[in-house]
């Protein structure tokens, strides 16, 4: 397959190094999209990684019941759970087919968290600094509200720091990240030369927003859906991150590395948090949206926006 990919790379304006990237893609259609070729141009190629469409055993009734029971335990009371949109199951099937088996359906209830809120499952709250920034207007006044929507949450475990060489295990985003660095859409300054080209570390929020998430949106066949306001592909907010860590994934706060978050801070910064050395799920601070660090990563979340009836 390598020789075929090199031929295609030359024909569509890429050099032969593209073959190394393309070989890591999970479907031949994905190769076509990255080359700018018609998808029908590529499927006749032999492939060491043929497309395999694996449909997760997603029973909607059981899914709603699972979320209902989890929320009842967390809040200590009944919490309504909306039916998931058909697009969620469709997107999950596409994700599985593209090898993006990192996403788990999750429901964010319509509720506002306050610093003095008490819920049985909310054992680790964001630190006081976060609430002060909301009060001071540097973080959006509605930042601690969840809106009654479903998402596909990336349940990957963030690794501990290893001089920038740490990697998310079996990360399906590697091909996108290699391509971004190869094309110069993810900058690699000298101080990040030790960061592997496949790594989620050392990528600024700007680069995530302008390249990584659009590429992922394309892989998930969500481009038109995003532009019509049905879905967003972005980082979790601090409140989503903290809530999910308390509800289901405590390991989000158990690594001594950080994650970029979706929330804006002032005009130019984004929130960052989750480091075990700074309080784990309680940890939250801010940094400039153009910065890159070898100890700060990100995770994508696919948010299905509530639609008017």
Describe the structure.
The chain is 32% helix and 16% strand. It is an alpha+beta fold and 309 residues long. The strands form two sheets. It has a four-stranded antiparallel sheet with strand order 1-2-8-3. Strands 6-5-4-7 form a four-stranded mixed sheet, covered by helices on one side. The longest helix has 16 residues, at 60-75. The radius of gyration is 20 Å and the shape is globular. Residues 1-55 have low confidence and may be disordered.
Write the layout of secondary structure elements.
Layout lengths: L1 H10 L6 H5 L5 H8 L24 H16 L10 H12 L5 E10 L15 H8 L9 E10 L19 H9 L22 H15 L3 H5 L3 E4 L3 H10 L10 E8 L3 E5 L10 E5 L7 E2 L3 E4 L5
Parallel strand pairs: 4-7
Antiparallel strand pairs: 1-2, 2-8, 3-8, 4-5, 5-6
């Amino acid at each position: 397959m390598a020789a075929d990919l090199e031929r295609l790379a030359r024909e569509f304006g890429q050099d032969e190094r593209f073959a190394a990237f393309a070989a890591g893609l999970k479907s031949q259609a994905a190769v076509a999209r990255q080359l700018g070729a018609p998808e029908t141009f590529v499927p006749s190629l032999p492939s060491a990684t043929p497309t395999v469409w694996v449909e997760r055993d997603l029973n909607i009734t059981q899914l709603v019941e699972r979320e209902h029971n989890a929320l009842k335990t967390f809040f200590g009371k009944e919490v309504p759970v909306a039916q998931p949109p058909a697009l969620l199951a469709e997107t999950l099937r596409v994700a599985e087919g593209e090898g993006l088996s990192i996403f788990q359906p999750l429901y964010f209830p319509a509720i506002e968290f306050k610093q003095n809120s008490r819920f049985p499952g909310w054992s680790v709250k964001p630190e006081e600094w976060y609430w002060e920034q909301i009060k001071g207007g540097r973080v959006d006044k509605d930042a601690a509200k969840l809106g009654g929507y479903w998402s596909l949450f990336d349940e990957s475990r963030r690794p501990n720091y290893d001089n920038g060489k740490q990697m998310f295990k079996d990360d399906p985003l590697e091909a996108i990240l290699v391509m971004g660095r190869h094309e110069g859409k993810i900058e690699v300054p000298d101080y990040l030369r030790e960061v592997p080209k496949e790594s989620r570390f050392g990528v600024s929020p700007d680069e995530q927003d302008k390249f990584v998430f659009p590429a992922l949106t394309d892989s998930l066949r969500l481009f038109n859906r995003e532009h019509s306001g049905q879905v967003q592909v972005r980082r979790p907010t601090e409140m989503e991150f903290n809530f999910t860590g308390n509800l289901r994934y405590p390991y989000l706060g158990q690594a001594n590395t950080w994650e970029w978050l979706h929330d804006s801070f002032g005009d130019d910064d984004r929130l960052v948090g989750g480091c075990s050395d700074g309080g784990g799920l309680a940890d939250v601070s801010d940094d400039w949206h153009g910065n890159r660090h070898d100890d700060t990563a990100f995770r994508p979340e696919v948010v299905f926006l509530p639609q008017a009836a």
